[in-house]
Amino acid sequence: MWLILRPSFFMLSVQVRCCSSRRAILYVPGDDIRKLNKALSLDADCIVMDCEDGVATNRKEEARVTIRQWLDEGRASNSTSEWSVRVNSVESDLCKEDLQTVLGGANKPPTLLLPKVESKEHIQWHMGGCQKINLIMYIESARAVVNLPDICRTAEQLSSTAPLKPAALVFGSDDLCANLGVTRSDNGTEILYARQKLVLVAKAFHLQAIDMRVQVLCFDNIPDLDGLQRQCEAGARMGYTGKQVIHPVQIPIVQQAFMPTAAIVEWAEGLIAAFQEHQKLGKGAFVYKGSMIDMPLLRQAENIIKLVSSNTKV
Amino acid sequence: MWLILRPSFFMLSVQVRCCSSRRAILYVPGDDIRKLNKALSLDADCIVMDCEDGVATNRKEEARVTIRQWLDEGRASNSTSEWSVRVNSVESDLCKEDLQTVLGGANKPPTLLLPKVESKEHIQWHMGGCQKINLIMYIESARAVVNLPDICRTAEQLSSTAPLKPAALVFGSDDLCANLGVTRSDNGTEILYARQKLVLVAKAFHLQAIDMRVQVLCFDNIPDLDGLQRQCEAGARMGYTGKQVIHPVQIPIVQQAFMPTAAIVEWAEGLIAAFQEHQKLGKGAFVYKGSMIDMPLLRQAENIIKLVSSNTKV
Amino acid sequence: MWLILRPSFFMLSVQVRCCSSRRAILYVPGDDIRKLNKALSLDADCIVMDCEDGVATNRKEEARVTIRQWLDEGRASNSTSEWSVRVNSVESDLCKEDLQTVLGGANKPPTLLLPKVESKEHIQWHMGGCQKINLIMYIESARAVVNLPDICRTAEQLSSTAPLKPAALVFGSDDLCANLGVTRSDNGTEILYARQKLVLVAKAFHLQAIDMRVQVLCFDNIPDLDGLQRQCEAGARMGYTGKQVIHPVQIPIVQQAFMPTAAIVEWAEGLIAAFQEHQKLGKGAFVYKGSMIDMPLLRQAENIIKLVSSNTKV
């Protein structure tokens, strides 16, 4: 209930979680109430209540209804995580019913994750309501990578009139590899083009870039946390600021690896200082390090500082 | 003559050779009747009767006429290879005459290879006739790589009304390197962007991606077949499913290296099974692994299975 | 004054410096008359009189006026370097005044460098005058890399009516890294996509590709010239033909590393020979190695030969 009844907190929450603050993204099957409850005690930046791949075909309705109830009861209102929902893809024919159920209550999720976005047509649909909801899009096919600038441009344009506000892109490497007919290697050279194009387009449209899913990393059933850290660092070096995880034990490692770099923190501090100075002088828009500064950029900077200051404990 | 008189066989042939089934592509100069005859005994998936770079300027007319006669006489009707024709580029001013001669008879080649496609204008010309002919486009300049999505989109649109059906892209690395002013290295790092963009765009438009020509690999005049295998595997790891060869001895190595991966075979088997199930239920279009399944995808899957089952001998 | 009063020399100069001939690009703060005078004795291919990052905010007017005076007095008329001017970015609000001052005299600089070009809107402004001035655009943000083909297409179209003639792209890796939130590594893997896309788009539009700034390379205050050479060679292997330098001692190393390759020289010699042959026969346009040859390509070829023959001393 906090989402609606405490609008100031909601705004804060949306701001805090925007851009570079979703470091560890954890999936929970939407039909599994036990796992949902367990996730309440976890510290993932973003928890995804899943209707898609994590839910069997004959459990889709169960997932929708469970998530709706979860939202209605405000179960996660004390959680510091962003409790979001992943619906099924537009082409799956399950999407419409997912949306109607999941968004049909008074309490909307702050963020919606839409898998298999392949073209601008996939996001040119209209939702009722005027409350802003973040949109995270999965890019997981060759066609999606080709159409990526087009998709982001359309999402940006639509956000001025529709409630969906583009917030992030997820690099869906597993489906992309299947589409390309390739096997994902340890260092991912075979998908370097797609992985770097995604970061670039994301940054061009002020979206967070969330890296590919952690590969299963185990030695004799002991999770290979060093390998995980190497994978995170490889993504961070390219500009990714978050990663999808498959097990709670991976959360702190991912979070630490995706802490903003010193250069980013410096940029954010400088921007906020410059903004405050211009505010004092009564000036509106201004240029910082050659870029025209608008509110989204200011919020990004604020998020980075909040993230750093609230996670020095990590 | 089989192309026209045996339409059912022709259809089969086109299907078998579509998408991922052209593993080894061998060039034969169109004016060299001795080499054409020799190629009848070779097992290349695709044999290219060449009018372009393999033929001297003053032998162009000889090449056209020889190829036309070869087609008229149905010389390759017992071959399991796809006997195709490469004409000269649109900008060369030889192309029109090539097409008139080569396509002027009753027996059309199943596939036409068009070099140096640089923009959509290069494929916006019209051919008479209504028999479908596969179109393989060479991407071999910076401008072509930049315009690639545009070229493929146009080819796809044209195929609904014109007889040319886009089937594959060839990565022409030698001309591209010359255009970029670079020397091709052993691992090809300097053209990684172009090489991976080509695969992605090809897959986005359901086209086969055919990798760059084998580099001359010899030690003391003995062909370096290990080096060849490494080159093939590097391409296959990125999603290429075929390669251009320069000597018959290279054919079996290339064919083996480009056998579909287990993941691809599994995808194909699953898709065909799902299709048959939906057919039984009387349903038309359906979704398989998140993608709407249409006939081209079904045919791709069938080709993969045919390729695997007919080549376990290799 | 030579720029206006000696048009034939100016034409020659513009030709000599077009395309692949700017190997070492050296910046001099536009407000520092001592450094400007010192640069007269240096052998950089291109000397940039800077109004942008090299000049403090409160010295911008000083820089403009100094540069204007420098041009008016024809101070560099005996220099073999290309004395160009870098203005501030369009979004900085300093650009208009820079242009009015710097281009307001009789002696225009042969080349204008425009930083932070991010979209075609950034170059859709009009300058008076009809004398052609080369335009070098800095690509230094994610948005710029995404919009790059669009920017170059617009610049090409505008050049038919406006005095600005697109000549080169500069890969501004430092600002790009800041925008992506990444730290530039020694081999630059994290920006490989952007670095190779820039070369490809540049070549597609017949522009020179100028590589990223030399990283500070010192051991105990002794410049690491071996490291510099490795960095130059890495760029040259991808098709870059010039680099920005920060110290005069780096000039000869950069110049040597970016000498045209044997393959390029052979291409250029062949093209010029073919052109002369066609001229004798009274033919106009012709095809050389599959490309329609126009005057820009001929000039590129001539520049390469001039560059090689005038620098065998290096």
Can you offer a commentary on this structure?
The structure is a homotrimer of 314-residue chains. The first copy, chain A, is an alpha/beta fold. In chain A, helix 5 links the parallel strand 3 and strand 4 (111-114). Chain A has 2 domains: 2-258, TIM Barrel (Alpha-Beta Barrel); 260-314. In chain A, the strands form 3 sheets. The first copy, chain A, has an 8-stranded parallel barrel with strand order 1-2-3-4-5-6-7-10, surrounded by 6 helices. A two-stranded antiparallel ribbon of chain A has the order 8-9. A two-stranded antiparallel ribbon of chain A has the order 11-12. Mean pLDDT of chain A is 85; it is low at 1-20. Chain A has helices at 2-5, 7-17, 33-39, 60-72, 95-102, 142-146, 148-158, 173-180, 192-204, 225-238, 251-257, 262-280, 295-310, and strands at residues 24-29, 46-50, 82-86, 111-114, 133-139, 164-171, 208-211, 218-219, 222-223, 242-245, 286-288, 291-293. In chain A, helix 12 crosses helix 13. Chains in contact: A-B, A-C, B-C. Chains A and C meet through helix 9, helix 10 and helix 12 of A and helix 6, helix 8 and helix 9 of C. Chains A, B, C: It comes from Timema podura. Chains A, B, C: Residues 23-248 form the HpcH/HpaI aldolase/citrate lyase domain. Chains A, B, C: Its cofactor is Mg(2+). Chains A, B, C: InterPro entries: Aldolase/citrate-lyase_domain, Citramalyl-CoA_lyase, Citrate_lyase_beta/mcl1/mcl2, Pyrv/PenolPyrv_kinase-like_dom, Pyrv_kinase-like_dom_sf. Chains A, B, C: Residues 1-18 form the signal peptide.
